[in-house]
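User: Just a sanity check before I run the rest of the batch. Below are the structure tokens for the first item. I only need the designed sequence back.
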């Protein structure tokens, strides 16, 4: 199996994981919207999740420790220079930290 990583640059950079049966084959599975965050134990891959009303997140997929380590290594190695480093810190805001910077009063 071959795994590919495609980065997308934006305010919150993310990448897609593509899974291929052989190096030249079309991908048969894709996980979109993966991110790298810096947690208490170092950087980790965050897979797509939905925030529930109680504030907790429900993960859409899961990876084993070994698989996540491989994906993290591949993602960090393929990250474009324009993607910020270090990775985003967990719990540093809701994504709206700069929303009131342009309020005229």
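Assistant: Here's the designed sequence for the first item:
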């Amino acid at each position: 199996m071959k795994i590919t990583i495609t980065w997308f640059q934006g305010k919150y950079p993310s990448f897609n994981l593509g899974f291929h049966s052989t190096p030249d084959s079309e991908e048969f599975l894709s996980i979109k919207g993966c991110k790298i965050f810096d947690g208490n134990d170092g950087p980790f891959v965050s897979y797509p999740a939905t925030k529930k009303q109680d504030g907790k997140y429900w993960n859409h997929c899961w990876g084993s420790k070994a698989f996540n380590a491989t994906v993290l290594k591949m993602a960090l190695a393929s990250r474009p220079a324009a993607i910020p480093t270090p990775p985003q810190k967990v719990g540093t805001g809701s994504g709206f930290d700069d929303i009131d910077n342009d309020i005229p009063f």
